[in-house]
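Deliverable D5.2: sample structural annotation.
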Amino acid sequence: MFQETDRTIIIAEAGVNHNGDFDMACRMIDAAAAAGADYVKFQTAVPELVIAANAPKAEYQKETTGSDESQLEMCRAIHLPLSAYAKLNMMCRERRIGFVSTPFDHVSIDCLEPLRMDFWKIPSGEITNLPYLRKIGALGQPVVMSTGMATAAEVDAALKVLRKAGTPLSRIALLHCTTQYPAPDSSVNLRAMHTLAATGCAAVGYSDHTVGITASVAAVACGARIIEKHFTLDRNLPGPDHKASIEPAELAEMVAQIRRVELMLGDGCKTAAEAEIPNIAIARKSIVAAIPIAQGETFTSSNIIAKRPGTGISPMLWDSLSGRKATRAYSADELIDPSELGN
């Protein structure tokens, strides 16, 4: 599916920014659709199957949600029940935006499988989870895998598992990613997408955790075919990911800027663009008489010059004209007739 269109696939990552509120999740679908995103993506998990009771919070989670509760307690509060995702999928169909949710455990994979998503999204944290990768790979369906925190060797190992389980490389796309919220500009390393492309995967893209939309737009210019960006209805809402997310107006601007960049990238052929063809005659020069030239006088650098407009003999033919004799008289600034070049 990743090679069927030249358009960048834009994924609006709702994640858990609904804070466990189904109505807010629905409003996020509306916002993503209005912004022009291709997909809105959620995160599906049974927290007890993903997080041990004593697992610590990440530093950014402590900064955004405090340190009084555990990571497990935090995730219990912000995840939707499994029964919610079929309803969200149906709403996406009604709004004509694609639905995707990232599963974080085997039960969540089983929950999402009947929803017939266009692709499975593997998050960066599961790239070293062998049983998880085998279960996804065995489905044989398109996969988009984020590669945050991973080395090239770890990416290759994960690809090997997916392929051996039943998903060919032609159905796998890789997203470069920096797993920090927000990610510092110095950590972005967009050129790593070229390294990922060398794996032979179907497409490469970028999962953007930086502030703003610059990195996403730049990634498209660097060859990203998929862009994933966290968004929120309000960055001031409580929760771990809101501060590093963009709001709906910024999401719409990101989509618009990416579509502009796609137009600007073109087909790679170096030729005169249709828009500039009318200016060729205006901006280029022709050989004209520098001074009055009498019939029979020899054309030399003393009596011819290159000047606009570019509707006469090209100055690239200067040497072909020099030394010939004028077949008629010319006044100063008159275009030298192409017939002077002979046959």
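Annotation notes: The radius of gyration is 30 Å. The mean pLDDT is 96.
The annotation will be released with the project's public dataset once the embargo ends.
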